[in-house]
Amino acid sequence: MMSESSSFVKGMVLGGVFCMLVTLLGHMKVGHGTKGHRHEHHHIQAPNKEDVLNLSEGERMELSKSIRVYCIILVKPKDLGHWAAVRETWSKHCDKVEFYSSENIKVFDSVSLNTNDMWVMMRKAYKITYERYKDEFSWFFLAYPTTFAIIENLKYFLLKKDPSQPFYIGHTVKSGDLEYVDGEGGIVLSIESLRRFSRIVEDSDRCPEQGGMIWKLAEDKQLAICLKYTGVFAENAEDSEGKDVFNTKSVNALIKEAMSTHPQQVVDGCCSDMAITFSGLAPNHMHVMMYGVYRLRPYGHTYNDALVFLPPPGSDND
Amino acid sequence: MSVGATCVYPCEGVHYLQEMASSKSLMNLLTFTFGSAIGFFVCYLLFSIILEEQVKIQPHFLHNDPHGQHSSDTDSNQLQGQMNFNADFGQHKDENKNIAEGLYQKVKILCWVMTGPQNLEKKARHVKATWAQRCNKILFMSSEENKDFPTVGLEAKEGRDQLYWKTIKAFQYVHDHYFDDADWFMKADDDTYVILDNLRWLLSKYSPEQPIYFGRRFKPYVKQGYMSGGAGYVLSKEALKRFVAAFKTKKCSHSSSIEDLALGKCMEIINVEAGDSRDTSGRETFHPFVPEHHLVRGYLPKTFWYWNYNYYPAVEGPGCCSDLAVSFHYVDSMTMYQLEYLIYHLRPYGYLYRYNPDLATNPEEQSKNEALEDNQKLKQKVTES
Q1: Which residue of A242, A271, A292 is in closest CB contact with B61?
Q2: CA A181/CA A168 separation, integer angstroms
Q3: What's any one GO cellular component for it (chain A) (predicted)?
């Protein structure tokens, strides 16, 4: 009887120790895995709400003023309707916005690039921007006229990111070996990335005006290739729940998709609360988005935001 | 030396087993094995509890997590679960809904939605999935009862010419079964989107004992005007009481099949006031169309009936619509979810809205200049520091 109970106890102890060893070993391994958040990692996240609230009053004020975004919109005469809508709506929330057009248009002010080729337009626009504004802005946002952007959410996203690091952010797509930012969702470059691009763009071997062997590569892909040579890699922007904040589709299109893929949780599954861009919008939809984003809201819901963004002067639709 | 150190227990166990095998004491071997299994199991349970606690604290990056924790839920148990939905952990954690929740308790609204058997899956379902849950009580009115949806079966038929019958019977039903459960009684269509929080803010300035009703005010045919049916309208408790009584005493009757007009005429007869639902800056809150139709200049042609019907001067462009809009009409299923997303989810971080609803009490006081003044004061504060 004694030998049996003692063997039982010994067995228990052995089992317990063995289990402890296995668990601790497994836990240590997992802990190690989550530590690696170096810059080359391809997913990039918005700052945590808690981190931001830990800033002092002075720091918040400083930050609200200090993040300055320069917007580049590439337009062509055929985009006149969208161009007008972008001018009247969200672009007023950029610290500075410039329309770079393929040719001179009398109706609106723009910087004329004298070329119809999108890649050449992009190169020229970035070059001119760097030369003129490298000391004034730290972040550069490039968009097409079919895109709607919420600059306040962009600033919040960039809040704790150091612009002297080479950032190249947006909605990324993988094409074979190349990961690039889809131009439809908008392209964000830090000043460091822009600096590096302005140098590599002079290298006609690595970053030619006519890229691709037989047919032309899309300009957003060409940009990625050139940037890659300078050590700048595309990163997909996500919120704290892993949802994309740069969208290459409109809210309508995303809702439609959500209605068929998960009809029980349409809005939850659709889009981020801190979305920065939507694309494929008609001019009318931009006006609806302005109202829906900057004005329409439910009474009695308040937020304790760490930053303050004032409405821009000279507009009545926000 | 280290080999010997780590080999204490396992080695002892091995020696033990050898002993067991040699002494052929099967019983001891079985108890040993049983003991080790128990020991392992107990230890595993303990560790899984400890580790679960740690996991809860870390933020989770799951994509579609419908049951994320909502930190303000624990503060409001008295809401009977009707406000707690669409709770996604990360984005709504810093949202303060105290004022909205206070109004939910103070201004009780019963909503009834006009629908029919053929529209339950096409339309009513999306109403149920979005704004309807924010009513203190929601009822779907149909010609047939449906226990699953659920819908109330009225003694009426379907069809455009039956709308007023359905309306009369619906209000009758609400009066007979839910009169004491709410202060205000809202009628909407299954293609109307209603923003309950803003409706409560509007109604909070009035008493349910007042004989009054609100909606998008039209001017023709009725001296004090009448409310557009599609944009939705809301009756005070007293108004509902008088409306139902009027049919019993024959003061009002089914005079026509044009629901909103007929109801408006009855309201005038029974001295229920047609209220002014515009916000403190004079902008309309109930809308007979979707936002796009009102916001885009020139969308509705000048020959359209709408321009002659509006009681107050109709505005197109950004001035059309209050920031605190209450309703939109002709909203299809996709637009229901789009509005839900734009209103309750997407927002510009840190943005200081131009319109401040709590500033003025009458339309003449609140002006754009006032709001701009406040903004400039804040701007000064920002540049000073």
Answers
A1: A242
A2: 8
A3: membrane
Q: Under a CB-based contact definition with an 8 Å cutoff, are residues A290 and A278 in contact?
A: no
**Which tokens sit at A285?**
């939809």
Q: Which helix (H) or strand (E) holds B213?
A: strand B212-215
Angle (CA) B325-A271-A268 rounded to 5° is 80
List the structure tokens of B314.
Answer: 């109709």
Q: Assign B329 to helix, strand or coil.
A: strand
Contact B261, B222 (CB under 8 A): yes
Asked whether the beta carbons of residue A292 and residue B198 sit closer than 8 angstroms, the reply is no
What is the C-alpha to C-alpha distance for residues A288 and A183, in angstroms, rounded to an integer? 23
Q: Residues A214-222: contacts with CB within 8 Å, 24+ apart?
A: A216/A119, A217/A119, A218/A118, A218/A119, A218/A183, A219/A118, A219/A119, A219/A121, A219/A122, A219/A183, A220/A180, A220/A181, A220/A182, A220/A183, A220/A187, A221/A175, A221/A178, A221/A180, A222/A119, A222/A122
**B7 vs B244: CA distance, rounded Å:** 88
Say if residues B287 and B328 touch (Cβ distance below 8 Å): yes
- Contact across the interface for B350 and A255, Cβ inside 8 Å: no
Which residues does chain A have within 8 Å of residue B22's beta carbon, measured at their own beta carbons?
none
Whole-angstrom Cα distance, residue A22 to residue A15?
Answer: 11
Tens of pLDDT, residue by residue over B182-226, are 999 999 999 999 999 999 999 999 999 999 999 999 999 999 999
Cβ-count burial A4-37 (b if 16+ within 10 Å, e if not): beebbebbbbbbbbbbbeebeeeeeeeeeeeeee
Q: Would you call B315 exposed, middle or buried from its count of C-beta atoms within 10 A (0-12, 13-18, 19+)? A: middle
The tokens for B266 are 């009855």
Residue B86 banded pLDDT, cuts 50, 70, 90: very low
d(CA A239, CA A249): 17
Residues 233-252 (A) with a CB less than 8 A from some CB of B: 239-243, 251-252
| Band of residue A15 on the pLDDT scale cut at 50, 70, 90 | confident
| Angstrom distances, CA of residue B253 to CA of B206, B238, B249, B265 | 28, 19, 9, 10
A233: which DSSP letter? Answer: -
Contact A265, B85 (CB under 8 A): no
Reduced to 3 states, what is the DSSP secondary structure of residue A158? helix
pLDDT in tens, A220-258: 999 999 999 999 999 999 998 999 999 999 999 999 999
The residues that bridge with B95 in the sheet, in sequence order, are: A303
User: What is the phi-psi region of residue B146: left when phi exceeds 0, alpha when psi lies from -120 to 50, beta otherwise?
Assistant: beta
Nearest partner of A230 among A209, A210, A200, judged by Cα: A200
Q: Are A124 and A223 in contact (CB under 8 A)?
A: no
pLDDT digits (tens, 9 = 90+) for B23-44: 557 888 888 888 888 888 888 7
The whole-angstrom distance between B323's CA and the closest CA on chain A is 4
Identify the band that residue B3 occupies on the pLDDT scale cut at 50, 70 and 90: very low
Q: Is-cis flag, bond preceding B318, omega within 30?
A: no
Residue A3 CB contacts under 8 Å (≥ 6 apart), including other chains: B25, B28
| Conformational region of residue B298, where left means phi above 0, alpha means psi within -120 to 50, and beta covers everything else | left
Window 35-74 of A: residues touching B by CB (8 A cutoff) are 48-49, 53, 57-58, 61, 64-65
- Which residue is associated with the tokens 């810093």? B94
- Read off the pLDDT of each residue in A8-15 and give the average, rounded to a whole number: 82
Alpha-carbon span A290 to A87, nearest angstrom: 12
Residue B61, exposed/middle/buried by CB under 10 A (0-12, 13-18, 19+)?
middle
Average pLDDT (A112-131) is 96
Q: For residue A188, give the amino acid letter.
A: V
